[in-house]
Amino acid sequence: MTVLQLEDLYCAFGSLIVTKNISLAIKRGERHCIIGPNGAGKTSLLNQIGGQLRPNAGHILVEGTEITHWPPNRIAQAGVARTFQRNNLFFNLSVLENLQLAVAARRSLPWNFWTVADRIRPIINHAGTLLARVQITGDPRRLVRNLSYGEQRQLEIGLALAADPILLLLDEPTSGMSPAETDRMMTLIASLPRTLTVLMIEHDMNVVFTVADRITVLHYGEVLASGPPDAIRAESRVREVYLGTRH
Amino acid sequence: MEFFLEQLLNGLVYGSLLFLTAAGLSLIFGLMNVVSLAHGSFFMLGGYVGFALFRLTHSFWLAFVLAPVPITLIGIAMEMVFLRPLYRRGHLDQVLLTFGFTFIFFDTVQTIWGRDVHALPPPPGLDGIVELGSAIFSSYRLFIIATGIAIAVLLWLFLERSRVGAMVRAGVDDAAMAGGLGCNIPALFSAIFGAGVALAALGGVAAGPIFGMYPGEDTEILIPAFIVIVVGGMGSLRGAFIGSLLIGEADTFGKAYLPGLALFLIYLVTAVVLLARPQGLFGIKYAAAGPPPGGAPEIPLQSRGAVLIALATVAALTVYPFIVADYHRALVTELFIFGIFAISLDLLLGYTGLMSLGHAGFFGLGAYVVIVLGSLFGLNAWIGVALGIAAAALAALIIGYFSVRTSGIPFLMLTLAFSQLIYTVALKWRDVTGGSDGIGIPEKPTFFGFDLAHSLPMYFVGLIFFLLCFTALRRLVASPLGRIFVGIRENEARMLAIGYATRRYKLASFTIGGAFAGLAGGLYAIFNGFISPDAVYWSASGDILIMVMLGGAGTLIGPVFGSAAFLLMKNLVSSYSDHWLLIIGVIFVACVLFFPGGIWSIFRYARFSVRVGAKA
Description:
The complex is a heterodimer of chains A (247) and B (616). Chain A is α/β, with parallel strands linked by helices and 247 residues long.
């Protein structure tokens, strides 16, 4: 079953076309990686799916429901969660508070103004489970700004998972990480349940070819190639884009 | 037809003067992310210095050309000495700093030139009239329009064609990057700040022959200039120009054709523009700069020591009124009421990150409802308080509906503008509100049989309501809803991404804050027995903002101390000196510069060092 379907998606900033008629279908449980040189329009594509950016034309469907032009919060409520390329957390709140906010987002508690938030067991428990799942150890009452960069990246994923999404969008989960941190992140991504669909932008080819079921290569806003890893590896145009033409 | 043409031209005159003020404000904001509340003061100073120069030289033209010079120097000095250290801090500190300066300038002007209106005669040659067909225009007004247009063209040429102009545009786009490319950013900031001040001062002199000079002129130009910028779009010269003409015409035609509704017309225009384009007509969507420094983790009241301190404080406050005289009971009662007012603003400012500069509007609304309904219909004051809360909440809901579409400085400007609307209604609806004289309560109510005309029961009413409100808001900020507010303060974009309709929650916070402010206002009406438009004026909103910042935003208890410190200080200073505005202004400036975290942060540091010391 198709979880995410893009139909002729088109987006431009003035005369700069960042997404040029992209069509893509991603099946349930698929690990789909998007690669491409800087400026290929990878993050812009993710931003359109997440609602942070409005496409000029085309359609985005999640499980058959059209979500094009929905605001980000509604898209999130529909089960699409995302992480950001640059850590985008609540830095002055504790790890636990970060997760509590994310967990509460999809429960019917938002208008509760009387219960003490820290005493709502189901949410605290859920947050604790997530903490273990994204492998953040140490005191959960630490402020996020005091976490290591790698831990903050892991928390990014924790926030996204909190809402039990059907589609997870990851924007370069390993960017800026040390090799050890990258390994940990790869284990984390590999441990995600196969019922969850993952669309991921990644630069580290090692990660891409380990994780991906299918790969899409973007170049100047267009799909250059899309298919299973082996096919992409063999594709000559991809080599040209990445390595330049050999002389 | 002549009448229509005349209004059209008058609208252009007002628009030109607005443009001179708004252009600088807009550029300064676009480039430096600073909003200067003192910009209206520079306009006013321009008028007065021009007036002084005219008396000295008897030449309008010398005054017109020379008046902006000293004021520009003052502006540049202010930027270099006071604003520069604040660029790394949030917007709010800068706003508060310039707010302090408005007091200083106001007091200075009043001391030197008195409270009377002074007028500047138009220059010889331009004191006549011009006939266009059958319509008659004053030639001086035509001169102002020409000046406005000429300045607009010059500014445009400067920005688009000159090297420095290119640097300014680069700086507006990304100041850090422009600095990296070799622009001397500090010099550029000072130059643009100075240029903005010069334009405002020029506008002030130019307005002299039309409006005259009077204390209060600063606000009367600042508020519409803010509206111009919100409508036109921040940081856009074109926006400032079109916005000025739009607001100038809307205001002038409103006053001519719909005198009763004139005031609402510019707000209507603003509301329509914001609904269609939240970023203003020509504004580009810019990423809102970081939230105010706000809430460090607070000390949980659950800890045994804190509970003991709280109980001891309540016990002391219960005994206190029995051992002091009326005067001191009343003083502390006022502190309770302003404590409620301050924590209601802290919910917006400290917990939700909404920089409201119009909070006194809701306080005033609550107070007016109690007194007006009491005097017109003999309504019981407690029912009045309930209705006042409802009215304040409703007003906050409506104002918030438009305001939460923006954030940061535009939000601040909009809330300020809307609260001035409430002020103007209080001032102009004389039959009901008593106009500038204010209005008194016919009879003080009772509270469970105790006559509130006496200071002792009134004291306990204040104490009880304060404790109730404080407890309620403490629970609110610890609840899931309160956590959402804090999440929005910290990172609104991420809140959206994890599924929160943030605008709705911001509106909720704004409305709850408005309701509590309405309650504080209602209690104040009962306590004080009298309300006048001064309580709703924007400087009252600034005062309460200072109280919150002074105490430490985002801590609830801090603002209580902040408001107490502020009121006691005001009480003390005003009993010793006529220049309390000046002194308060200087204290504001000093507080912003030296106590960025507020009074409460000093306590916290003290606690922290005690703890560290104990461990060592």
